[in-house]
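Key result, reporting period 2: structure in, sequence out.
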């Protein structure tokens, strides 16, 4: 199965190759307006995948009450766009070709966070842990906006201070703990643009148990340049 993973589009509409499954892991638009979200919705409906799964991120305030476009086909300038099989997940799951998939949009707040970018944001790991506990233990593909602590979760400390940039890990510690229970085959996320990439590692770390594929699919880099390509995983 060919799975393309992308996240943190912030309004960008990259060309995608098509395949079996497309995963979009949050931060869908640039300004979080209705027009922006409609533009995203039109773009995603044109993608050539058997199934597309979308979750929201901390920039997606428009999705707090649910993904607002639910019609199965619509017309723009006289052109009718039929939906492919597109599904929005928010603390919910679905199945595709025998794989169980779960999506969750939550992230943790941090000092100085933009107050307009706090959709699905919680203040403590204890609150986050309650969300992660909803994830079924038999999940094959986990999609979150937040990375787990220590895995493709680096950003720059004091990014805007003008000082020497030090990389720090800021992912969710409670998510990493719950991964010990869930053990998905694939975990897709974004949120931290600096840590774009894919890695396979033993989980729990250094145990020699099972390999989990982790993907930070952020499309924009740390400077909000749209240079990162979708990451393909074959399952």
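The corresponding designed sequence is given below.
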């Amino acid at each position: 199965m060919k799975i393309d993973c992308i996240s943190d589009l912030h309004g960008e509409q990259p060309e995608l190759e098509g395949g079996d499954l497309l995963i979009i892991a949050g931060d869908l638009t640039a300004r979080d307006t209705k027009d922006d979200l409609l533009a995203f919705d039109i773009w995603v409906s044109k993608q050539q995948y058997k199934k597309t799964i979308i979750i929201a991120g901390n920039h997606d305030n428009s999705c707090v009450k649910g993904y607002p476009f639910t019609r199965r086909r619509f017309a723009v300038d006289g052109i009718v766009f039929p939906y492919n099989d597109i599904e929005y997940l928010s603390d919910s799951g679905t199945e595709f070709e025998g794989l169980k998939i779960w999506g969750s949009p939550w992230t943790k707040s941090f000092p100085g966070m933009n107050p307009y970018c706090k959709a699905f944001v919680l203040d403590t790991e204890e609150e986050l842990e309650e969300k992660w506990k909803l994830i079924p233990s038999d999940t094959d593909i986990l999609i979150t906006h937040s990375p787990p602590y220590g895995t493709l979760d680096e950003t720059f400390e004091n990014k805007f201070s003008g000082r020497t940039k030090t990389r720090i890990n800021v992912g969710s510690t409670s998510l990493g703990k719950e991964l010990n229970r869930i053990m998905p085959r694939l975990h897709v996320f974004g949120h931290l643009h600096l840590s774009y990439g894919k890695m396979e590692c033993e989980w729990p770390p250094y145990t020699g148990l099972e390999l989990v594929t982790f993907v930070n699919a952020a499309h924009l880099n740390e400077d909000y340049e749209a240079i990162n390509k979708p990451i393909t995983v074959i399952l």
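The chain has one domain: 2-234. The chain has a mean pLDDT of 90. This case is discussed further under Risks and Mitigation.
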